[in-house]
Amino acid sequence: METIYTAKHKLRDARTELFGGQLVAPFERPSRAEHVIARIREEGLGAVSDPDDFGMDPIHAIHPQHFTDFLRTAWGRWKEAGFEGEAIPTSWPARRMVDRPPRHIDGLLGYYALSAETSLTESTWDAAYASAQVALTGAERLQEGASAAFALCRPPGHHATADMYGGFCFLNNAAIAAQHMLSHGACRVAILDIDFHHGNGTQDIFYDRDDVLFISLHGDPLDAYPYFLGHAEETGMGAGQGHTLNLPMPPGTTFAVWREGLARALSKIAEYGADALVVSLGVDTFENDPISFFKLRSEDFLTTGQDLAAANMPTLFAMEGGYAVEEIGINAVNVLQGFEGA
Ligand SMILES: [Zn+2]
Description:
Blueprint: E1 2-4, E2 17-19, E3 22-24, H1 30-43, E4 48-49, H2 57-60, H3 65-80, H4 105-112, H5 124-143, E5 148-151, H6 173-183, E6 189-193, H7 200-206, E7 212-219, E8 244-249, H8 255-272, E9 276-281, H9 298-309, E10 315-319, H10 325-341
Parallel strand pairs: 1-4, 1-5, 5-10, 6-7, 6-9, 7-8, 9-10
Antiparallel strand pairs: 2-3
Helix pairs in contact: 1-10, 3-4, 5-6, 8-9, 9-10
Keywords: Hydrolase, Metal-binding, Zinc
Domain Histone deacetylase: 28-335
Family: Belongs to the histone deacetylase family.
């Protein structure tokens, strides 16, 4: 399987994350992608290619320009305002307030942010742009006839909505890739999100559409980030009714239980008749992940890859989460090897 990768991901190198009332070193750090690419090379998974540059048009097919303008200019405006630290929002348009973008950058951060853990930094935009190009290049490979490709995206994307960032995500790579395929001949695309966390951004983007089926297996939002979306009763709206499936699971969920959810997801994907499958590949379902609560072991990721291969569809893997940094390469590549070897 070909991997699309760029060292530009290192431009996303925040110093701070607001966690447990402290500013800590971010869980989402450059070494994550470096462990994955090292494992790919060590195992000889296949060619590693640089992304092509598709420009802003396919990004704007998902994200409005006022949002990308904000991401691109936020750091400069934050510094101009005289702030010393990394850009962290502190105020939100909460219930019964007015949903209008403020002029001041401090307020504007809250307008565009889902949550406060994700610091905006000097070259965040450049890394986010490159990560979207990685996903687009992977999508293009499928368009060209490849049966599978791995987009080693970083920063990840599935928490980013059309016009909000957060959860370490800025641009929704999986959504951008799916839309690219739809814009170039695909009629229906399924997105299967197996990251520990609910893919709230992806769900929100496609919630009222019938050309994308979105399925997520995740920690119950009553207990886990992103807390405010991902319940079982969310099934889509309008034309999208029935095209969202959420499978929230409780703390301590084992692979045996998780795999039943995966089987249910794959059965729905088979019924849907998609032209391609995008897998939002997070491996924070791992038992030793520092910010998650499922109990998958490294060998379970091999089985997961085998199960995904049995769907027998052109498949784009887009990297999402996984914060047990030492094991992220083994776990992510196990999925890909399981897929290839099945
Ligand atoms: Zn996650």
